[in-house]
Amino acid sequence: MNGHLPIVSVILLVGVVLLYNFPRYTDHDEAAIRAHLTNISRDATSIPVMTFNMRLDCEESDPNNHYTKRIHRINELFRSFEPWLVGLQEPFAGQLLHLQSYLPKHLNVIGYNRNEHDLGHPSRHNDFQVGMIYDARHLHLEEQDYYWLSETPRIPESKSWNSMGIRTINIARFTIRDGVLAGTHLIAFNTHLDVRSEDARRHQASIAADIISRWKVLYPHAVFMMFGDFNSVPGQGAHRILTSQLSDAWTNCSLSHSCTTNAFGTTFHGWLGTFANVYLARPLQVVAFTLSGLGLEIPHAIPQQASQWARALARLFAKAPQYSLLESLPAWPYNRLHVDWILYHHESSPESSTVVVPSLVAVIDVRSTNFSSDHFPVVGVFTVGRK
Length: 387
Description:
With 387 residues, this protein is an alpha+beta fold. It contains nine helices and twelve strands. The strands form two sheets. It has a six-stranded mixed sheet. A six-stranded mixed sheet has the order 5-6-7-8-10-9.
């Protein structure tokens, strides 16, 4: 019996090494998806978009992750992809001012419009935490609206349901300026659901779904898209609520032979980079998301010290679960633990002639170091056609 122990140990060691190192996502994989992205974005019927939690400007344990270093990588990301529309999460107004100094002048920013003071005024510090950047060469802004995801959605700075942060939704209606899509309405929603409270996330998603429903009635022939960091993953409460109004672009893309995607399993990496995608990390992520989906409080950043882990465990077991295990689990087979999604409406209405189909949905800017954020961005290219 003892003679078999070395063999078993070697097998276990090899298994752990494989789980630690696979699946691999290499520079070649990144280059291939970017090349395809560039090609299909040039199609006259295509709309290239992106959702990106660009990480707030704060002190970082690794100085290389500070915003002053990351801004150059973010600038390169925008210039290499050239999206028509980007839903951003977390930036302070000063961050966007800094970024705009690098970006082309045709990229405009919209957030909470106070009709007072410029972007650099202290009162506007949090006005762009769900800001959108759009390419004015292709899109003309027709109107914009802004809600607080609380029991009083029209009261600025309001929050409810034990939400850790003030959560909002930014809404913009555009008209496509040029090409065969000229005159088409594009209505975009951008949000960032709460990081701590599952109860808040579900209520916030319900308010957002109701807002989307009302816009769909007003503009039945428009193209609808939603961007966000939802702090939950497919299969959980917020995803179920929002996909009652819109379709998940990644899900539909993965089911289509004519749509390109990449098998990258996570978007929030917490400065771990590609390691967050390996098989060894996935069970830990499934457990963390399930605990969060149950309504238990988990840390919103990876603890770095023993004392931080102790506090996190104390908060975790401080209260009983609010929701059942079945409704809290991520969607099987646990190969897509994305908190950042792009949602869309594939047919505006039964009477509408507009059809929207994803031709590419992918996680990009995947790195093992020199990150643009602690989230990897998700990009989508959508083909708009007629029935």
